[in-house]
Amino acid sequence: MKTSLFIFNSNMKKFIKKLFLIVLTVLLLLTTVNYFGDAARLFDSNYEIKMASIIRQGYNVTNISNFNERLFQKEIIKNLKVNPDILVLGSSRSMLINSDYFEEEQFFNSSVSGASIEDIIGIYQLYIDNDKLPEKIILCIDPWIFNENNGQKRWQSLQLEYYKFKGEERIIENSLNIDKYFQIFSLSYFQGSLKNLFKVIFGENYPVATKNKENENATILIDGSYVYSKIKRECSEKLTERISKQYVNDEIYSIEQFENISEKIRNSFSLLIKDIKSKDIEIAFFLPPYYPSVYNVIREDYTMVDMVEVYIIEYAKTNNIKVYGSFNPININLNESYFYDGMHCKESGIKKILNSKM
Amino acid sequence: MLFNSIDFAIFLPIVFILYWFVINKNLKLQNLLIVAASYLFYGWWDWRFLSLILFSTIVDFLVGLKLSKEENKTKRKILLLTSILVNLGFLGFFKYYNFFLDNFITAFSFFGTEIKGNSLNIILPVGISFYTFQTLSYTIDIYKRKFEPTKDFIAFTAFVSFFPQLVAGPIERAKNLLPQFYKKRTFDYGNAVNGLQQILWGLFKKIVIADNCAEYANMIFNSSADYSGSTLVLGALFFTFQIYGDFSGYSDIAIGTSRLFGFNLMRNFAFPYFSRDIAEFWRRWHISLSTWFRDYLYIPLGGSKGGTGMKIRNTFIIFIVSGFWHGANWTFIIWGILNAIYFLPLLLLNKNRNNIDIVAKDKFLPSIKELFGITITFGLTVFAWIFFRAENIEHAFNYISEIFSKSIFTIPNFDNMRTALNIIFLIMGFIVIEWLGRKEQFAISIIKKVKPPVIRYLFYYLIAITIMIYGNFNENQFIYFQF
User: Fold this and answer.
1) pLDDT digit string, tens, across residues B371-395
2) A208: helix, coil or strand?
3) Which residues contact A155 (CB under 8 A, 6 or more apart)?
4) What CA–CA distance (Å, rounded) separates B206 from B248?
5) Which of A7, A235, A245 to mutate to test the interface with B (most CBs of B within 10 A)?
6) Does domain A47-174+207-354 have CATH number 3.40.50.1110?
7) What global pTM score does this model have?
8) Catalytic residue list contains B326
């Protein structure tokens, strides 16, 4: 006699059938919107290529959002016409450094949001691979690059380059690709994708070429630097203060669980600096300041941040490297008016920092 | 494990399938599965504290058996005391140790004596206030000979740890829940569908109403000094809906989930914000706790039978204890006292049982008098919630004093006002549905009266899509987990 593990009666069958149909309909809606709305452009591999192509043609690119900044760097570096005189590597906190601050003609900013040491090394390796190494590198030092628990995963788009630099042979596991397929079932992703779906339907979902530097939306200039959207540029000091307050009320970006300056990262960092120096490239460190009240909280509760600054200053002294800026805004005479939010300094602040050597 | 998490979305169907489709012929195995699932559910948060539940379970099981056989009054009292000491001992240590220590140190230093005491870095085990009260009711009922103890340890363990209501209630009584573990359970289609509907409504309350309100309530309460009186009123209103959506949403999911497994839990919320006076509010808010305090504290103290002095004393005791049950903070105690002050006039004037039935039972809209009662009661409740939500007493008083300043007459202003407007519209829609369904066990079961199934299904899809569009999917913890 054939026996089954499962025992069904007609009521159960009816229940399961109906439930299955309801869940299936909801899942169908969810996956369709997530795939076609695609808020973070996980399923559109051409977006970064389109952006890079606009820059290559000598235009700034605006109307941009949610793209993979690492893939964009791959595209743009591959197509750089000349080697830059000055190259900026770092995070969103160095993205606003632009060619206006320098006399040298060829300037390029290859900063990516939330850059970790792996990102910096990966992008540096891209310059090596494409034979586009600069004469000078300004390296933005964010405290979290020394925090092993910084939670940054975006560098995985550059893991091939990172491991190549480190001389480690690895089977590349692209967890981003796996995450991508999980996102198709994500309810949070659905909300973003639904908004984006209308843009897709009305054809407003593409990067736009422009000669203007300041636009309604965020813009990447031909030198790779970034200009914020109009709303952010015109944010009042009061709102900035409130945003900064909120910033410290939540978990502070990438410096939670910062227990020590990771030895592993310190070694990677030294390896990078040695390599840069061995290629006769001049190097300078840029320490981006925090908003004054944010820094006060950080000084009290996140002591590793100051430790990073001390470590970097010592390291720079030993290796004869220039240091611009400080995490502490008081050290560089920056008050609240020089900030967009809790951790992003305005162009005027950057100019002040670059004009004054520490 | 949180009800509003992916983990639970995977866990629930697996347990459901095993329960109904694999071992449904064997009651013992079903109970064992519930125990295993419940321990997994709790251990997902922190497995170390499973030992506390297990210890409480063993103690109360043994005390229950001994109590039933013991005739000697003194020995019976000792047995009861053992159960109370173990359960309240755990609760006192984990929840109140630091509070008492800090207050003793402050009190002694006030009188010029410095005493040293180290606060302990204690993690509060999730749900400890709920399951300790549940097991306590078991031993107290046996002591009072109102209930026969069980000899089935697995059934008793399942009763104590039943995962749908383990961490935030409803706090069940043994005489309601425990016998359900002895009876053979058969799959009931109507019950299961009803359970799913209640889960859906619970998720809506939690993910759409509570978690979205929480964003604004937290923003306004955390920086209350920066906002005008009118914005602070809005902050208090956001918290009012946050706590209702959060807690009653949890109860709905718990009751709905239990139905899926063939269990009926007691009702925990009955549209409290439509209450016409505070006495009615307390009959409709967190019913399982209010009735627990009524049966095991208020009535043993003499209830409202004694003179005026006794009535006042008992009312204050029950509300202060209820406040303290919520947490080791003076804000909760003030919240309790405030509710006692609201309640007392009704009790003394013998008007505390004026409003038993749901408002406008046979009408569509309330009368002017009823509307007035609802508005006043709601206003008093919102005011009391300020103490409940504030960080400390000083914060609460500063918050209230700003509300009663000139700035109350300004237009509320805070970040993301536009998004907040969406939430306000959702709250309004939520109130309408709750009003329409106020005569039901939970609001959306009103839809079962609509005959064409297409409309019913469209309605369920509408709620599901609203959750998808407006839900806050940060897997926020339920407020009552901390109590």
Assistant:
1) 999 999 999 999 999 999 999 999 9
2) strand
3) A70, A115, A116, A118, A119, A122, A162
4) 8
5) A7
6) yes
7) 0.79
8) yes
